[in-house]
């Protein structure tokens, strides 16, 4: 019994939709030949979704647990009905459909899903523990991965929860590695956060000796951290929602040249214009932030007559998981920092 | 007296914003040295904005006129407070600031603005006529272009209102010309509309003899039009909001290869996934449609593990106006069609 590679065979309603857009999907454990069954141990709930749930439940763990159970019972997946977003999971492979046996994967392997929980068939038997501060929930349950569903085997040398934190934003540093070339000017907005730090590392790797990496960061604390770790040539403390402030400081630092590549990792809305102004003509702005508005970016660039390429941050690019985990292996300083912040 | 190239010197509130994001800008006629003053004759109101205004005023031309006057009086620009969007204008240059005298522009030249009215200082002395069916308003008034504000001189061989219709979507065909190379498979969703037709033409120019251009269009009528004009190798009649339907038909037509470049020109929401599935790995999806959702695109590609480049349709790219007008010069068939549809 072979299902659709994208999982449409499990969509209950509305028909013709794919699992992410569907209201309800079939989370039964009867496995199709091109699916993988996983015993899930931890859910890493998307930060926007978890914040909404915590607020709705007033941080009451019992209420949170039953809200989570209700969502999954109703939808067959953990997709927050308000934010639309999901998260990721960690678990052990328990069954592999016969069409996927050739894959480099074995029963018992611990994996992290790299596709969103908002499209993943999920069964929760029991909620074991809710970790309020880490957006994580330990559970007993099962999830299904479709043929197109990407995942990463967890390495033995990195603690699972540190790996989960890094894998959540793995698309960003891998894209930086693709886009940035030696000698370029690179601006990283929101460079002090989780994805930002990894992006800085990736950019400095290419441009430390020939090029300029500049971070725009809001908090003095985060800025200091980047300076100390030598993760940028310059750290500008500014509010990315104020385009002219950012533009003037970047102009000064680059002596009017502006930037070949601008990476936006800020987690608040209204930073499109600041990003656009920092880019050179023919430069690239890579919007990784989920708070990006499509229309603000499109009209914004036109409004100032900027001939730039604006990219929507695809969470996936080939080899992204290995690249991101590789940073933790290469840099003991970043590893220590992630240990402190995200474990 | 030199202003900010981006017009921030005219922002009244909130301070630190650029004109587009501002609530109110200074529309006084005292010209800065790096500004251009234009006698405006026609406003081409953005379709989303005009639809909203028409509904609010129940198509009563007097009410529409006073609503337009009110908006401009309050904001100093014609930015619809509900949709946030603007439009473009046509007018004659009446004054050029001394810093911009070197430009290839003379007093008396007729130009179309290529930046949005949502950021353009505007004064309306009198509304002459409201053209309900064409989203156009003839006025007597004045507008200011900033140093960064792009414009096109209207050609003498193309009627102004036809030029305006084409210039409104000029970014799209020019980008197609940049992205598409000989021998590629190209899909154009919503290829039967205004921007779509121009994109088809640009794609066929590259790929007529070596490559495949396929259009996905909703209406039988529009599909027939493209077939007759020979603007694609194949026209698929399908609903772009149904990703699997589109995917299956594109798979069949390309014999499983899928497309190197996918252009989205559909004017309704929910077509991100259909576009993503049609692209090859390492392919490009160019979202020109303003109905695109950033998050749906970002999470959608990740959700199906597609390593593709997704671009936000920048309304501007170098030479876009000349390129789009050039299509009307090259193709008498497209010119006739635009004459019929948009004049
Ligand atoms: N495209 C994808 O597939 C994908 C996947 C995962 C995450 N994301 C998105 O990526 C973004 C970043 O995620 P993250 O986990 O790295 O978040 P994060 O750790 O919270 O980092 C955000 C950073 O932005 C800084 N910042 C906030 N407001 C700012 C402002 N006004 N000016 C300058 N800097 C400001 C923050 O500084 P403070 O700490 O001082 O506030 C922080 O350093 C989020 O929007 C998230 O949704 C996208
Ligand atoms: N990025 C920018 O700077 C910029 C500038 C201008 C415009 N735009 C955007 O570009 C888009 C297209 O503009 P336009 O002037 O070309 O619009 P348009 O002439 O109305 O064309 C839209 C086309 O999409 C087709 N369509 C509608 N629903 C469809 C569906 N479900 N499946 C397949 N095709 C469908 C329409 O067919 P029917 O006629 O049968 O409905 C029509 O042929 C708009 O979203 C507009 O906002 C962007």
From TrEMBL, chains A, B:
InterPro entries per the UniProt record, alphabetical: KDD_N, NAD(P)-bd_dom_sf
Origin: domain of life: Bacteria
Domain L-erythro-3,5-diaminohexanoate dehydrogenase N-terminal: residue ranges: 9-155
Cross-referenced Gene3D superfamilies: Medium-chain alcohol dehydrogenases, catalytic domain
Pfam families named among the record's database cross-references: KDD_N (PF26370)
Full protein name: Zn-dependent oxidoreductase, NADPH:quinone reductase
Native species: Mesotoga prima MesG1.Ag.4.2
Lineage, uppermost ranks: Bacteria, Thermotogati, Thermotogota, Thermotogae, Kosmotogales
């Amino acid at each position: 019994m072979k299902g659709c590679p994208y999982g449409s065979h499990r969509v209950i309603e509305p028909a013709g939709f794919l699992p992410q857009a569907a209201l309800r999907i079939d989370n039964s454990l009867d496995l199709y030949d091109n699916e993988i069954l996983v015993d899930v141990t931890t859910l890493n709930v998307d930060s926007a979704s978890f914040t909404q749930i915590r607020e709705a439940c007033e941080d009451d763990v019992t209420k949170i647990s039953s809200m989570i159970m209700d969502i999954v019972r109703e939808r067959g997946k953990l997709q927050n009905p308000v934010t639309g977003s999901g998260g990721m999971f960690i678990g052990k492979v328990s069954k592999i459909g016969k069409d996927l046996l050739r894959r480099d994967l074995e029963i018992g392997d611990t994996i992290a899903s790299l596709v969103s929980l908002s499209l993943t068939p999920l069964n929760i038997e029991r909620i074991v523990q809710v970790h309020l501060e880490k957006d994580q929930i330990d559970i007993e349950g099962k999830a299904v991965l479709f043929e197109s569903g990407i995942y990463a085997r967890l390495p033995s040398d990195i603690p699972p929860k540190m790996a989960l934190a890094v894998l959540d934003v793995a698309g960003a540093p891998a894209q930086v590695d693709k886009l940035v070339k030696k000698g370029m000017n690179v601006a990283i907005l929101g460079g002090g956060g989780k994805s930002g730090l990894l992006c800085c590392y990736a950019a400095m790797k290419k441009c430390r000796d020939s090029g300029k990496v500049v971070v725009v960061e809001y908090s003095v604390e985060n800025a200091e951290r980047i300076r100390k770790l030598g993760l940028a040539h310059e750290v500008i403390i500014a509010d990315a929602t104020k385009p002219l402030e950012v533009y003037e400081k970047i102009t000064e630092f680059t002596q009017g040249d502006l930037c070949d590549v601008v990476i936006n990792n800020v987690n608040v809305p209204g930073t499109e214009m600041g990003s656009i102004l920092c880019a050179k003509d023919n430069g690239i702005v890579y919007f990784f932030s989920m708070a990006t508005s499509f229309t603000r970016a499109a009209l914004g660039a036109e409004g100032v007559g900027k001939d730039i390429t604006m990219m929507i941050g695809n969470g996936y690019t080939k080899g992204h998981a290995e690249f991101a985990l590789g940073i933790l292996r290469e840099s003991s300083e970043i590893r220590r920092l992630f240990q402190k912040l995200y474990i």
